[in-house]
Design a protein that fits this description.
Blueprint (H helix, E strand, L loop, with lengths): L4 E7 L4 H16 L10 H5 L3 E8 L2 E8 L3 E2 L10 E9 L1 E5 L7 E4 L2 E7 L4 E4 L4 E8 L12 E4 L3 H16 L5 H20 L10 H14 L8 H7 L4 H9 L5 H19 L4 H7 L5 H12 L3 H7 L10
Antiparallel strand pairs: 1-2, 2-3, 3-10, 4-9, 5-8, 5-10, 6-7, 6-9, 8-11
Length: 321
């Protein structure tokens, strides 16, 4: 990792008294002055119980917050910067305003807000908020970002791709070469501008890893759906089937094989832990019948479903077809 990339994580849920100081020290050491810190209220400083992760990739910063306590900024002027910010909220809410006493916009769970922010705006987060904020350079958005920003649901195709890529960057940042870090940064910016435009160039090969990961994340949520397929995933992610297949092929994979593998893995867990019959498991994970399921399962695991269930101490009573 070079001086243009850095990351750290912090868990102050059991050290509330020193949590804010630890957070500020790590931020200044690893992220730096190019990304100003908020000034927290006295109440927040006194009870700073949060899991926090931050990563810097050149002029992009990613922060992920999971707060046991609430947080609120202190009185005072907004700190001046020229950046674009994307707020994504999984649970809780993120209220934003130009003044501490005002609320201009609240990003609720399942939603996002992307807008130009001339500084760190005042904000308030209730306890148990899980959210992510991505800080980006303003220049790439000069023509694509409306004056009041862009809002929407976090399950939008472009947002799914951005989240998938962001997660990958957080996980592998320490191992990236300088060239890899630059490519990761450029793809972050490109995907964020796609959110602003509500569309992206699906011929851009830099987006293939993020597209494949977003498709995998979505597929794993829909493994029991009868209509799960390349076509459904492509439709949900707003790309062509061919583009999606190319994204998987770039990693030596196929969409169909991935879905089949994950369904077999889920079926294996069910054989070990549930009281469903083999036929019920086959139907739940969308195998045409128990015979088809049995052949696919034995090819993958070297055992029939019944043999696998017995070996893995499946509860008695429902082992038959």
């Amino acid at each position: 990792m070079d001086d243009k990339t850095a990351s750290f994580s912090l868990d102050s849920r059991h050290a509330a008294a020193t949590g804010r100081d630890d957070y500020e020290r790590n931020w200044r050491t690893h992220v730096g002055d190019g990304f100003p810190l908020p000034r927290f209220s006295a109440e927040t400083v006194a009870d700073f119980r949060v899991r926090f992760r931050a990563a810097k990739v050149h002029d992009v910063a990613i922060t992920t917050v999971d707060g046991a306590s609430g947080a609120r900024t202190a009185d005072g002027p907004v700190q001046e910067t020229d950046q674009v910010r994307l707020w994504l909220v999984d649970s809780g809410a993120w209220a934003l305003g130009g003044r501490r006493s005002s609320v201009e916009h609240t990003v609720v769970a399942g939603g996002f807000l992307l807008r130009h922010a001339a500084g760190v705006p005042h904000f308030a987060l209730p306890p148990h908020t899980r959210a992510r904020c991505i800080v980006l350079p303003a220049a790439p958005f000069s023509l694509s970002l409306p004056g009041r920003g862009v809002t929407g649901h976090a399950d939008a195709a472009e947002v799914r791709l951005l989240v998938a890529h962001t997660t990958m960057v957080e996980e592998v940042l320490a191992d990236l070469s300088p060239a890899g870090a630059r490519a990761a940064r450029d793809t972050l910016v490109e995907l964020a501008t796609a959110v602003a435009r509500r569309g992206f160039d699906d011929a851009d090969t830099r987006l293939a890893p993020a597209l494949a990961q977003a498709a995998k994340d979505l597929a794993e949520q829909r493994l029991t759906d009868a209509d799960l397929s390349s076509a459904m995933l492509a439709r949900e992610l707003n790309v062509s089937v061919r583009t999606l297949q190319r994204a998987f092929a770039a990693r030596g994979e196929s969409v169909t094989a991935y879905i089949r593998e994950k369904r077999l893995e889920s079926a294996g867990r069910a054989l070990s832990t549930s009281r469903l019959t083999v036929s019920e498991i086959a139907a739940r994970w969308q195998f045409s019948d128990s015979s088809h399921f049995g052949r696919a399962f034995k090819q993958r695991y070297g055992l029939t479903p019944t043999e696998y269930a017995r070996r893995n101490h499946r509860p008695e009573g429902r082992a038959g077809r």
